[in-house]
């Protein structure tokens, strides 16, 4: 992120897009853009960018781009889809840039990722061609008439019915399939079940034949990788088929090649944690099965002044458990977020104005932290600044309950003032209770009364606070906070001799 000039915030951009000003310079006309034409618009004062086949004149947006003009210019006059996906795949550019739309590319510049994967699979001779390219309604007929198609050698699905229920069974053969790897939603007669396997996922996505009740039951046979989704029929009718396949039905593609999926969650409580930070509890729909893995975040989406605005947030536990015996399992019904409300924050102000009972959209989880990074660690260091504490909450829970070789967990928590410290008392209590856990608070703007440590992240501070409990012990150092804090911290740690494998930085 770069500092933006006054009057160049996201809200200012939204206002400009609603002002009726001609932002493309084409007076509302849409055109077919050739690659040659696109390439001509490669200057700051005349900059077009293609994203997923659509061309935008981003010249008026330059000064509003939170990542700075230079970042935007990297894609000037070219197809910026890959760059965009690397940096912020989740940003709803269609909504943000709709007034900048110039038109479509005359020739689609990129092969669709799905097609690329399918072609690879065809090439290795795994899949029958016609099923790959056209998921037919026939695939959705009951078991006795047609067994489910095999899109990938270890993924298939099937379904059966009784008078009152419909059951979909997904077979993955993935060992250790768990609740975090299965995401199911059933909204408006549409069933969507996503099974995550490393960086790929298998999707069953169907417009159901008839309506079903809201509560959906998901059972996972972890050892054999089988998922059973039970739906209750609204009317006791015989279903001739499961339903109509939707666009991505029965596909197995890279996780990052799927568009974001959102479901609406109800705000059920909002409690103060510090003077500016609140704990929001959202209730998932009964028809959703979603557990956000440790170290991952989701995107929250709200319509603000008529524009969809999306920001990432990291779910936490509702409180800090003091008795770490078994990992706190998600109850599958609620998500908790610890969110700092910024006085001039576009998203957090809107969030703070939500009333209990209001709805907000929540995406599927994302993030590149793997629990396996922590599983063999003996010493874990958690370096958090401000709300950068949020990923550390579940990490604390996980390391203290599930990492058998763990010797120490040390949280080094950077804040401006004492009143900014999230869960200070609970953390102190935990340190008293569990000899493996230690917490150190470091304040950058303390009052005179503060007797603890003072300062900012630095090489000398880290060499003092981050030390192996024994020579050659296996360490994991996790770091999260404002981007410059995280970047500097990583650099200091590398300078101190820690390897990239020993460091995990939480970023977008
Ligand atoms: P904006 O309108 O974007 O900014 C308004 C003002 O707020 C800015 O001028 C600045 O003073 C301040 N501000 C805004 N963003 C930041 C920032 N990122 N750092 C410092 N100051 C800022 N936040 C949480 O509170 N809880 C979380 O669990 C959480 N998880 C996150 C997970 C990820 C992966 C990432 C990348 C960020 C996370 N954030 C979290 C930050 C969050 O996404 C937003 O950036 C933040 O809530 C501010 O949004 P806003 O629209 O209100 O502020
Ligand atoms: P804050 O209160 O502004 O700052 C917390 C501490 O970090 C303060 O001591 C502050 O010192 C220090 N700090 C701030 N900027 C720094 C910098 N450039 N270099 C060194 N130290 C710095 O923090 P906040 O408002 O809660 O913000 C938390 C941040 O964490 C946000 O940027 C949020 O996006 C990020 N976050 C990321 C994730 C994720 O990626 N997964 C999750 C949650 C939160 P000063 O007195 O100098 O300001």
Automatic annotation (TrEMBL):
Entry EC no(s): 1.6.2.2
Family named by the database record: Belongs to the flavoprotein pyridine nucleotide cytochrome reductase family.
Sequence ranges assigned to domain FAD-binding FR-type in this UniProt record: 260-372
Keywords associated with the record: Endoplasmic reticulum, FAD, Flavoprotein, Heme, Iron, Metal-binding, NAD, Oxidoreductase
Leading EC class: oxidoreductase
GO molecular function (one): metal ion binding
Organism domain of life: Eukaryota
Keyword Flavoprotein: yes
UniProt cross-references to SMART domains, sorted A to Z: Cyt-b5
Domain CS residues, every copy: 152-243
Native organism: Bucco capensis (collared puffbird)
Name the UniProt record assigns to this protein: Cytochrome b5 reductase 4
Record localization: Endoplasmic reticulum
Cofactor (UniProt): FAD
């Amino acid at each position: 992120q770069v500092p933006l000039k006054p009057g160049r915030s996201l809200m200012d951009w939204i206002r400009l897009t609603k002002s009726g000003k001609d932002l493309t310079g084409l007076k509302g006309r849409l055109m077919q853009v050739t690659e040659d034409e696109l390439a001509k618009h490669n200057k700051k004062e005349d900059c077009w960018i293609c994203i997923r086949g659509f061309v935008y004149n981003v010249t008026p947006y330059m000064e509003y781009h939170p990542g700075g003009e230079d970042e935007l210019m990297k894609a000037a006059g070219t197809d910026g889809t890959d760059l965009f996906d690397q940096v912020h795949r989740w940003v709803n550019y269609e909504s943000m840039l709709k007034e900048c739309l110039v038109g479509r590319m005359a020739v689609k510049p990129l092969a669709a990722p799905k097609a690329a994967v399918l072609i690879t699979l065809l090439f290795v001779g795994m899949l029958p061609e016609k099923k790959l390219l056209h998921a037919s309604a026939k695939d959705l007929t009951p078991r006795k008439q047609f067994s489910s198609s095999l899109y990938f050698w270890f993924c298939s699905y099937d379904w059966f019915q009784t008078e009152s229920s419909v059951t979909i069974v997904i077979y993955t053969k993935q060992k250790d399939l768990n609740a975090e790897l299965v995401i199911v939603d059933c909204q408006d007669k549409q069933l969507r079940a996503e099974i995550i396997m490393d960086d790929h996922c298998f999707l069953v996505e169907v417009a159901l034949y008839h309506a079903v009740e809201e509560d959906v039951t998901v059972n996972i046979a972890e050892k054999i990788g089988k998922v059973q989704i039970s739906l209750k029929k609204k009317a006791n009718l015989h279903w001739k088929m499961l339903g109509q396949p939707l666009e991505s039905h029965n596909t197995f593609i890279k996780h990052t090649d799927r568009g974001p999926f959102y479901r609406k969650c109800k705000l059920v409580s909002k409690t103060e944690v510090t003077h500016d930070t609140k704990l929001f509890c959202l209730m998932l729909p009964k028809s959703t099965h979603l557990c956000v893995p440790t170290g991952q975040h989701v995107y929250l989406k709200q319509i603000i002044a008529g524009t969809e605005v999306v920001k990432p947030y990291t779910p936490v536990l509702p409180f800090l458990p003091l008795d770490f015996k078994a990992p706190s399992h998600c109850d599958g019904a609620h998500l908790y977020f610890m969110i700092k409300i910024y006085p001039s924050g576009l998203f957090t102000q809107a969030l703070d104005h939500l009333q209990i009972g209001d709805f907000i959209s929540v995406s599927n989880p994302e993030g590149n932290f793997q629990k396996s990074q922590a599983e063999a660690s003996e010493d874990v260091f958690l370096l958090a600044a401000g709300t950068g504490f949020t990923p550390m909450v579940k990490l604390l829970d996980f390391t203290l309950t599930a990492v058998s070789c763990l010797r120490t967990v040390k949280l080094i928590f950077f804040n401006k003032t004492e009143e900014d410290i999230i869960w200070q008392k609970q953390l102190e209590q935990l340190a008293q209770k569990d000899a493996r856990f230690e917490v150190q608070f470091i304040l950058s703007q303390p009052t005179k009364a503060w007797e603890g440590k003072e300062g900012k992240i630095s090489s000398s501070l880290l060499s003092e606070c981050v030390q192996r409990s024994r020579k050659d012990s296996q360490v994991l150092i996790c770091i999260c906070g404002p981007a410059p804090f995280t970047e500097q911290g990583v650099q200091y740690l590398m300078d101190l001799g820690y390897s990239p494998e020993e460091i995990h930085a939480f970023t977008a």
